[in-house]
Amino acid sequence: MDDEVMDLGAYESPEQIAPDMVTLSKLPYSRWQNLLNIDVVKQQRNKPKEPPSAPKAAPFFLPTTLGLDPEFVKLDDKENVAPSKIASFKDFQLSAFAKLLNSCAESSDYGPVFDRLKELGPSSVDFEIRGLSPDAGGSSESLLSFLKAMHSGLRTRRDFELIQSYLGLFLKVHADTMAAEEAFLEELVSIAEEQQNSWKDLESAFNQSVCIVNYLRSAVL
Fold first, then answer.
1. Which tens digits make up the pLDDT trace of 99-126?
2. Fewest Cβ atoms closer than 10 Å to its Cβ: which of 23, 39, 134, 219?
3. The whole model's pTM is what?
4. Computed over its alpha carbons, how large is the radius of gyration of the chain?
5. Contacts 24+ apart (CB under 8 A), 39-46
6. Whole-angstrom Cα distance, residue 186 to residue 44?
């Protein structure tokens, strides 16, 4: 038996050692570290190499009336103006990400939401979060579903740094909407309480580690 080597197989570390432990994701820093300042990164990346030049003369269109024989519309006659062919944001349907959020909110299972966000790069995450606004084709329901998803993630204490980045960008982009509607207040208060509880546990662990390190440095062996 002593000469025999037991093959236990390769050890795979679990995603979370204990449910009450704050766990980080396995994504590289580049996927979340600059999310809060992604607009600055885009400006630097898209900065023109040459000074701007005067644009060419754009075509000029006058509004016309409806019918087989259209005529130019006078300034006082706006009832028969042909409708604009440029679609507004409100004419678009919800994005696939917004639909995913609303679907997960019905089952209270937000795992697919985080799986989708992890697949996206920083610019795509920024685009999806901005697209949740009602002015950009989203809805208030989608905004609330995103907050509930982040709250659910904080309760599981997984992907801690990702949730901080996602939530920070979300509040930065939609702060005015959050402040204007009371429907988000209750969820924001719950998130703040959960955030504070998570930080208390982290702060306690940090302080304990610092005390041990200071003791080992000053101890005379």
1. 999 999 999 899 999 999 999 888 889 9
2. 219
3. 0.68
4. 26
5. 39/126, 41/122, 42/123
6. 38
